[in-house]
Design a protein that fits this description.
With 358 residues, the protein is mainly beta. It folds into three domains: 42-156, Sandwich (Immunoglobulin-like), CATH 2.60.40; 164-259, Immunoglobulin-like, CATH 2.60.40.1220; 264-356, Immunoglobulin-like (Sandwich), CATH 2.60.40. The protein is built from three helices and 24 strands. Strands 1, 2, 4, 5 and 6 form a five-stranded antiparallel β-sheet that branches. A four-stranded antiparallel β-sheet has the order 9-11-14-13, with no helix packed on it. The chain has a four-stranded mixed β-sheet with strand order 10-16-15-12, with no helix packed on it. Strand 13 (207-212) and strand 14 form a beta hairpin. It is elongated and about 90 Å long.
Amino acid sequence: MKTLLLICSALLLFLISCKEGPQGPAGPPAEDPTDPNIAPRVVWVWLDSQRPYYWICDSYSKLSDSLPIGYIPGRLLIRFNKIMVSYTVIPNVTLLPKEDGYAYLSAWGATSIDGQTFELPIYGYFKLGHTYTVTVGKEATDVTNRKLGINFQKVLVPEPVLRIRTTYPENNDTSVYFISSIYATFNSPVDPNSLSNNITISPYVKGSWVSNYSNLENISFYPDSSFRGNTWYEITFSTGIKDTLNNHLPYPATFRFKTIPFRVTSTYPWDGQQYVNRSENITAFFSAYIDTSSVRNAVTISPPVNGMFDIYNTQFIFDPYQSLLPDTTYTVTIRSSMRSRAGDTLATPYLFSFKTLN
């Protein structure tokens, strides 16, 4: 019996601790946002990217008051413990310093989401390493006519260094189909003049790096010819890359990816298809741009069919001059002499068959 009591006591303590959660016991009951005896205060300030929809949650653990990754946050969210009068809040929120062409708050489009949470649009870029201060003025007033009383201030410090946020392809991606360009997104507007001599691709691919004129955070590489199949490529950004404020990458940055082998990805009709309409064209799709000159000599159809090839980047379409024979099985052979624009050939011949309608 004593052992049973000890087990029950331990189980009870475990259940209580689970209910309380890792942060300890639950806090006091939520404040009444209309209680005139409670003074208004700012609960949190949060920067967020613009989203078409969002969910505001009362739990502090759901939100962060630190500056998130990215430098066009889109909106500033401010949460009060009381229901506030909008026209006393929105005009009394400032973001400093104010610099032409850089981050600033706008009252246009500012709104109260639920009476306690306010959203103010932010436009422009934050400067790397510059300190910004959000101030909610003391004249902000709740619905019981109580004022904030003192200015609330929150210091925001963007990331201190230039860095690459995302790339396409992603680092170590081993399943990259043919690609016509490479992309990289930084956390600050990039100086276009710093690109050409400070990015290398190995194995070498001739082409040019350009910035997006409408969003200088994004840069792209456009090759003069296709990337080879079944090949690892490594892209290195040197410390010569800088943003428009002369902040350089603090250390070289590298990402790599592997292209898939040059191969047939699908056909129409598909292999084994029955009851194919006699007027159908025959199409094959590939994993890379195909070399136009290699198609006709690489493709045979049995029984023989006269027709013409139309070639569109990664596919060829064979258009027969006459309808196919009824109730006939056709076999299409694509020999390994089929080439991509980069010079890759098929590892093995590819065959597929289909049968026409009566």
